[in-house]
Amino acid sequence: MRAWRRALLYLTRKTGKSLLLFLTFLAVMTLVLLDIAVNRSSEEAAARLQEEMGGYFKIAVDYEKMSIRQQVDQSLIDKVMQADGIGTYNAMGTYYLTLPRLSLIPARFAMEGDSKARQARFLVNTDSSLHESFVLDILTLEEGRHIKPSDQGKALLSKELAMTNDIRTGDTVSVDVTGEGIGDSSHALDDITLEVAGIFDVMQKENKSERTPECDLPANFIFIDDSTGKKIADTLQVRSDTVFNSGATFFVKDPEELENITEQVRGMKGIDWNCLKLTSNNTAYQKSMEPLERLTAMTSLAVWLIIAVSIVLLALLLTLWERDRIHEAGILMSFGVSKKNIFLQHLLECTIVFLAAFCLSVVIALPLADKAGEMLYENAASGAGEEEKEAGGYTYDLDYAKLAEAEDRPDMRIGPAEAAVSGLAGLSVVIVSVGASFVVTARCRPRELLTIME
Amino acid sequence: MAIMQVKEVTYCYTSGKPVLKGVNMTLEAGKVYVILGPSGCGKTTLLSLMGGLDIPSGGQILFNNQDIAQIGLGVHRRKDVAFIFQNYNLIDYMTPKENVELTAVSDPVSMLRQVGLTDNEMKRSVLKLSGGQQQRVAIARALASEAPVILADEPTGNLDEQTSAEITRLLKEKARNFHKCVVIVSHSKEVANQSDQVFRLCDGKISVFNQEQHSEEV
Fold first, then answer.
1. Is A328's CB within 8 Å of B91's CB?
2. Measured between CB atoms, which of B53, B94, B125 is closest to A334?
3. Mean pLDDT of chain A
4. Domain residue limits at B158
5. Residue A445 and residue B74: Cβ atoms within 8 Å?
6. B102/A332 touch (CB, cutoff 8 Å), yes or no
7. Angle at B211 (CA atoms; ends B208, B215), nearest 5 degrees
8. Assessment of whether the complete model's pTM goes beyond 0.80
């Protein structure tokens, strides 16, 4: 009688033992697959976060220094962009200009009856989506689109400002800018026509006090494109290299590499660090990574723990099982069945049960993985949700809870490769466990086996 | 012509204590041999050595004039000998038919019928059979293997007198029909009386026992 037939007879006749082994395999493999699914999704989320959130560093003129010999201009930006690992940049400038035709959100100067109550902050951006306020979700785009490097005459207004002045996306706003304020007060600009490309909303509560001027309210910020910024600079007759007077923000591809990249930039020749300052920030990334790292560590630990426990459990179970079968092995050997053949029979039995349990565990683990992942994300997110971060002079909250939201959380799924790897790993555990439990039988002579059984 | 020869076989336990001290036997096909001796004298050990279940410390066991060590103990067990044990040693998750199929060269159903099992009994679990029926299955399994030598270690030890007599008769009858050499280790008078030759194992030595001596001793 061949080994496979003996194996099938054993499995079908010893249903209790087969069921026990099946349930053990099923429990272990379902747990392993669940863990792998959660682990994989948290790793994917981490990678996505790494890509989307990114770390960044900012180079700006250090106005505290006495002599300003170098500005942040396009040539400096091009030089910095040559450093390895930088993905993109946003160059920024700031102008405080008076807007006689628009009503700003009133604050300190309006109360004092000061003419500066009409002074708004114009924020020049090559790419407004990369402005720190948008990156950190202090501001979010409600309508329209962000300002891009190729734009000309485009603006982003706050929702509050747009509502106050009855402006919608696509409207053109003719701004009669009078140079009064921080810019050159002696010049009056021609009309600048700006098309409202988008409307943003201020997400974080403003730390507004009685002393806050109009131009410091985010609701009064007007984001404009680089080309408009140059036009303003030309009209104000300021040096063209001072367009990016607020510096430039450089986004790195991998936030983990931020420190190395900034070191590389600091070491570049032709940059005068005596009048420039470099500040790096990957706080948002690091803080957002905390729950994910916690989750990944937790699931990795769980995988190893489950594997270790299952090996011990299986070895124990199969050793006890094998002890019962010394009797049978002795009988079979007395009829000339080889030890190899007996081992093959035992291996086939466990493999058949394992494969059946593994297939079922895949079916069970798939729907369970999503539920388990959701729970774990919620737990992980709740641990970090109350933390507040301080950056760029604003207090803001990072919305950790959104990690738990279905649309932001990666799908909990088990890929064919992972399933195959777990299956093979499980099969290896089965082979090792069956092998270990077969040692006693393998070492004994047939007569010893028969004596033991007697 | 001798089918099996035991030549100067010695065997020591792992403790070093000798059990067999130069045993010599010659066995022929179609005959029934019985080995007698006190408990612990090494009867089962000798049977195990003849069946290739263990390796002798010294000497040779020849099957058809070839050393079984050269044949290979596994091959010897598979082709040359078949065992019948006192406790039947049937595989408990198999039916009688499947147990016989383990070794069967010939048709297991016909063999089971020959030893007196009904078709219904053949399909039952072996655990649901009586001791006598289980031993019949064990005999059928040994006969179905078509091994020329059957080694039976106290085959009636667990059976009542009547069943024991039936089993012995069956074994002897089938051995003659199938031209087998049967070696039985037994304490039973009935079994010894039905044998062609009786050996006596004592103090590690074996001697041929004649019927008169046997009757007196029994």
1. yes
2. B53
3. 80
4. 2-217
5. no
6. yes
7. 120
8. no
